[in-house]
């Protein structure tokens, strides 16, 4: 399982990277493996303010639909347009081209509540 050390993680299997006050968010390698082939990503929160732990969208796989929970509070700035035509990118490159949203952080202190790569790896038993 791939768990980059430079990212933060949630117990709900989202990852977040931060550059200044902008956060990029996606689902973890573990999550995409558990879901299987992803066929649709639905995010309807563009330009909306969301709070930490709020649902910001869903990921649909062949056999299930899973909610996406925001690791932090902020305003959704961008949705990955590539996923409309190629949702399987989340499977093939979850930490790269498979990112899901970009968010402007409203409370950077919330990052302290997130898991390190080691803690996330321990959580999922990998």
Automatic annotation (TrEMBL):
Cofactors: (R)-lipoate
GO biological process annotation, one example: protein lipoylation
Keyword presence, Cell membrane: no
UniProt modified residues of type N6-lipoyllysine: 63
Superkingdom, natural source: Bacteria
Entry's cofactor comment: Binds 1 lipoyl cofactor covalently.
Domain Lipoyl-binding: 22-104
Keyword NADP: no
Function: The glycine cleavage system catalyzes the degradation of glycine. The H protein shuttles the methylamine group of glycine from the P protein to the T protein.
Assembly and binders: The glycine cleavage system is composed of four proteins: P, T, L and H.
Alphabetical list of HAMAP family matching this protein: GcvH
UniProt record similarity statement: Belongs to the GcvH family.
Record-linked PANTHER family: GLYCINE CLEAVAGE SYSTEM H PROTEIN, GLYCINE CLEAVAGE SYSTEM H PROTEIN-RELATED
Name the record gives this protein: Glycine cleavage system H protein
Lineage, highest ranks first: Bacteria, Pseudomonadati, Bacteroidota, Cytophagia, Cytophagales
């Amino acid at each position: 399982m791939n768990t980059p050390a430079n990212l933060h993680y949630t117990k709900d299997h989202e990852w977040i990277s931060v550059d200044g006050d902008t956060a990029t968010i996606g689902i973890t390698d573990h999550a995409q493996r558990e879901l299987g082939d992803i066929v649709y990503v639905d995010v309807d929160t563009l330009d909306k303010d969301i709070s930490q732990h709020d649902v910001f969208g869903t990921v649909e796989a062949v056999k299930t639909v899973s909610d996406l929970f925001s690791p932090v509070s902020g305003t959704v700035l961008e949705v990955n347009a590539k996923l409309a035509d190629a949702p399987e990118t989340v499977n093939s490159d979850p930490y790269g081209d498979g990112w899901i949203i970009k968010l402007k952080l409203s409370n950077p202190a919330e990052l302290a509540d997130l898991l390190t790569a080691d803690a996330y790896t321990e959580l999922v038993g990998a």
